[in-house]
Automatic annotation (TrEMBL):
Ranges for domain Translation elongation factor EFG/EF2: 13-129
Upper taxonomic lineage: Eukaryota, Metazoa, Ecdysozoa, Arthropoda, Hexapoda
Entry keywords, A to Z: Cytoplasm, Elongation factor, GTP-binding, Nucleotide-binding, Protein biosynthesis
InterPro entries in alphabetical order: EFG_III/V, EFG_V-like, Ribosomal_Su5_D2-typ_SF, Ribsml_uS5_D2-typ_fold_subgr, Transl_elong_EFG/EF2_IV
SMART domains the record matches: EFG_C (SM00838), EFG_IV (SM00889)
The protein's name in its UniProt record: Elongation factor
Origin superkingdom: Eukaryota
SUPFAM superfamilies named in the record: EF-G C-terminal domain-like, Ribosomal protein S5 domain 2-like
Pfam family, one: EFG_IV
GO cellular component: cytosol; ribonucleoprotein complex
Keyword GTP-binding annotated: yes
Gene Ontology MF terms in the entry: GTP binding; GTPase activity; ribosome binding; translation elongation factor activity
Length: 239
């Protein structure tokens, strides 16, 4: 998906309740989507509102409307429990280009279509170089000027980065704003205090998601280790 679209979906700028022509026009103008395809969004997922899209790009497929509900159910299942570690997917667009269906209606039921859709979407993800995403905190840290150096040291060790530093007018205090991956935030306050002589006071709130660097399918990478740990914790097959 183009940058910014998942956030637009999260914020409700683009949502399933929009009039489909107006939504397609918005996607075409802002994100360069093909307007014809954007009019044929079947579903948002997971939970019918999430930041993933299922789009019908087919031309004249027989019986397609009969299986639409089942395909959407498979899509909801796949985006709710992703292929790597059964966590929610984010910022993924699935296009349906062709469907070959059994001519006998009894073989086009939900029991056949839903799990098949899920397997098909999983295969799409695995061949599209998937990446893990991690939540990121916005941290606002107040401290005197002498403690600012200690803050930078702690943040650098934890993959954080400062994007704003300013002095509070009329006081000796500084406010440092930084992004810090949630995964690196455990024990952050204690670490910060010990490196600044107890003079820094952090406040952290969730801000956004970012891609975790590295390939989760490559043995030995950090994302691979996280996937393995998550699968183990959930009692899933490893590998």
């Amino acid at each position: 998906m183009p940058d910014g679209l998942p956030e637009d979906i999260d914020n409700g700028e683009v949502n399933p309740r929009d009039e489909f022509k107006a939504r397609a026009r918005y996607l075409g103008e802002k994100y360069d989507y093909d307007v014809t395809e954007a009019r044929k969004i079947w579903s948002f997922g997971p939970d019918g509102t999430g930041p993933n899209l299922l789009i019908d790009c087919t031309k004249g497929v027989q019986y397609l409307n009969e299986i639409k509900d089942s395909v959407v159910a498979g899509f909801q299942w796949a985006t709710k429990e992703g292929v790597l570690s059964e966590e929610n997917m984010r910022a993924v667009r699935f296009n349906i280009y062709d469907v070959t269906l059994h001519s006998d209606a009894i073989h086009r039921g939900g029991g056949q279509i839903i799990p098949t859709t899920r397997r098909c979407l999983y295969a799409c993800i695995l061949t599209a170089q998937p990446r893990l995403m991690e939540p990121v905190y916005l941290c606002e840290i107040q401290c005197p000027e002498v403690a600012v150096g200690g803050i930078y040291g702690v943040l650098n060790r934890r993959r954080g980065h400062v994007f704003e530093e300013m002095q509070v007018a009329g006081t000796p205090m500084f406010v440092v704003k930084a992004y810090l991956p949630v995964n690196e935030s455990f024990g952050f306050t204690a670490d910060l205090r010990s490196n600044t002589g107890g003079q820094a006071f952090p406040q952290c709130v969730f801000d956004h998601w970012q891609v975790l660097p590295g390939d989760p399918t490559e043995t030995g990478s950090k994302p691979f280790a996280i996937v393995q740990d998550t699968r183990k914790r959930k009692g899933l097959e490893e590998g």
